[in-house]
Amino acid sequence: MTISSGRQPLLDALTHLGAHAGRRASHARGYCAVGHFAPHANAAHFADIAILRDGPLPVTVRFSVGGSDPAISEKTRNLRGMAVRVHGEHESYDMVLVSEPIFYAATPVSYLSYLEAQAADPNTGVPDPQRIAAHEQRHPDTLRLPALLASHAAPSSYACTPYHSTHAFLFTGADGVARPARLMAVPEAGTRYLSAAQERQLPSAFLEREMDERLLQGPIRFQLYAQLPAAGDPLDDPSMPWQGQERVPLGALLITALADTSCDFMTFMPTRLPTGIAASDDPMLRARANVYASASLARRR
């Protein structure tokens, strides 16, 4: 299997999984919020960029549930997303983060195979088990994330799960040295998943109300870190968790209010980076950026 551009085949495969006209092909269900980002006092030593010197800066945030169905249950054991745009004076910075430390696949080829294997057989209306088995034999990298998602219940709140970039980026510090890191947003409220009783009893839509009630008590806070790799941690395979434990504090992300639906019309790009942060040579990162750009155009037609 070959992919000429990494763009249209992946978008077509996502669409065939059930994307709805005018809606995102992935993470269709979501809510908008606003707040600000306050850089850590020493963050510019690690990444010498204006956004880490000039804060606090306003942010637009979209919290979401993975999948193409805008009516998907918020209790489903699927990825949660937190897409953040930091509005700098001269540049914007998008952070496209998810609730597990790894992505679905290592490469566009294996991700496309995964999406095709999950598509419903037109004769039965469900995925073909033989096709799934053949895919898993060819691409074992796509087994890691489903196993993580199945290992725990869904988050009890968007405010109670950590978020990860899964991809590595190169951060150039004040000394001119470019250092690889992945991003982590750690919730100050801690990590909490639904109990068995909550999984049974909560309505399928509860996250927006939960956040609204939580915000009555004050801002929702996350600490943003750059996770440094340990020796051997791959810079070009987002399906592999990093073993590196060292973190560099970058600042605090404060969510202060839910917002209108305007962020639904924004396209958060993992490669919309300010000067001083560069994309790594991760083929999946670049493919995702191409897909997001194509999907954004498609849902506006």
UniProtKB/TrEMBL annotation:
Family membership: Belongs to the catalase family.
The biological process GO terms on file are: hydrogen peroxide catabolic process; response to hydrogen peroxide
Its function, per the record, reads: Decomposes hydrogen peroxide into water and oxygen; serves to protect cells from the toxic effects of hydrogen peroxide.
In this protein, which residues make up the domain named Catalase core? 2-301
Q: Which Gene3D superfamilies match?
A: 1.20.1280.120, Catalase core domain
What are the record's GO terms for cellular component?
Answer: cytoplasm
InterPro entries per record: Catalase, Catalase_core, Catalase_sf, Catalase_SrpA-type_pred
Q: Where are the annotated coiled coils located?
A: none
Output one GO MF annotation: metal ion binding
> What is the official name of this protein in its record?
catalase
* EC number assigned by the record: 1.11.1.6
The entry's keywords:
Heme, Iron, Metal-binding, Oxidoreductase, Peroxidase
Report the top EC class in one word. Answer: oxidoreductase
Which residues hold heme?
A: Y292
The answer on whether this UniProt entry bears the keyword Iron reads: yes
Species, as recorded: Duganella margarita
Q: Any idea which residues are catalytic in this one?
A: H27
- Would the keyword Iron turn up in this protein's UniProt record? yes
